[in-house]
């Protein structure tokens, strides 16, 4: 699977939510694009990942 342009191996069959937790992403401050499509936060628990997927995770940064 590709994560932000680098290759990573899925250690097990998992959902997007499980993967993000394992990779220590804060689900409240990110946007996720899976295979070119934005994934709604409500779908993280039901979206299954495969080794063929391409995942882009973008963090929001606040400032003034």
From TrEMBL:
Gene3D superfamilies: 3.10.20.30. It comes from the Bacteria. CDD domains: Ubl_ThiS (cd00565). It holds the Pfam family ThiS. NCBIfam families: thiS (TIGR01683). This is Sulfur carrier protein ThiS. It comes from Sporomusa sphaeroides DSM 2875.
């Amino acid at each position: 699977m590709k994560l932000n342009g680098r290759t990573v191996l899925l250690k097990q069959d998992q959902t997007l939510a499980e993967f993000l937790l394992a990779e220590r992403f804060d689900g409240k401050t990110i946007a996720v694009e899976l295979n070119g499509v934005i994934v709604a936060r409500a779908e993280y628990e039901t979206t299954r990942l495969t080794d063929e997927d391409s995942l882009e995770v973008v963090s929001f940064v606040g400032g003034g």
